[in-house]
Design goal:
The protein is an alpha/beta fold. It has helices at 11-16, 29-37, 102-113, 117-120, 130-138, 149-152, 178-188, 191-199, and strands at residues 2-4, 25-27, 44-46, 65-70, 72-75, 93-96, 124-127, 144-148, 158-159, 165-171, 203-204. Strands 2-1-3-10-4-11 form a 6-stranded mixed β-sheet, sandwiched between helices. A 5-stranded mixed β-sheet has the order 7-6-8-5-9.
Length: 208
């Protein structure tokens, strides 16, 4: 299945929760959506943005559901960046590329609303995904990162006020294992599935 990068920490637990073998391809939602549009053989798409699924002819409309709400967080290896205003003293800041990554768009929106984007834009380093943006911060290539709460909720991350991402899932029109795919989506909204999502910093949703 194709899964947004903010779900990377959940993969092993989701795999062990199922009796069927799950194979994940992790990446930015926009890039994965393009792969599906170009015929990539995924049965399920777990997107960080419902806008990439709703109304798309590539998915079975009756299977679409919002499975979680995602949130943006601030993290730094040094631990010295606790507020957005602290970013004024950062030399380099990583975010996912807003052109194709929902968390990147949300990060830019948060910086815009805080009146910081213009001041910081020359110091922003774009990554392909929130997971790659996080790697830039982990290795010290940037001073701080705006990433998903799911990647830093248990690592001293700071949850930011701002946009919540409606994370949606659907079975693809080309799915070869549509029945099993549907069962997995049902599992995500079961109590067991919601517990896994919540444990990793995502707000489970029952919205269909």
């Amino acid at each position: 299945m194709a899964a947004a990068s903010d779900l990377a920490p959940l993969v092993s637990e989701l795999q062990s929760s199922q009796s069927v073998k799950l194979r994940f391809s992790i990446g930015s939602s926009g890039q994965l959506a393009r792969q599906i549009e170009n015929g990539a053989p995924f049965d399920i798409f777990l997107s960080a943005d419902d806008g990439l699924i709703n109304g798309s002819p590539n998915f079975r409309a009756e299977t679409v559901r919002v499975y979680a709400l995602g949130r943006v967080a601030l993290w730094s290896k040094s631990g010295g960046f606790k507020r957005l205003e602290d970013l004024r003293r950062a030399k380099r800041i990583a975010i996912a590329n807003p052109a194709h990554a929902p968390y990147g768009r949300a990060a830019r929106e948060i910086l815009d609303k805080a009146g910081l984007w213009a001041a910081l834009s020359s110091r922003i380093v774009f990554a392909e995904s929130v997971r790659q943006a996080m790697q830039y911060a982990e290795t010290g290539n940037v001073d701080a990162v705006l990433t998903s709460w799911s990647l830093v909720h248990d690592r001293g991350g700071v949850l930011l006020d701002g946009a919540e991402l409606r994370q949606a899932a659907a079975v693809t029109k080309s799915a070869k294992n549509a029945e099993a795919a549907q069962k997995f989506l049902d599992f995500l909204q079961s109590e067991a599935g919601r517990t896994i999502l919540a444990r990793h910093g995502l707000t489970p949703s029952r919205n269909r």
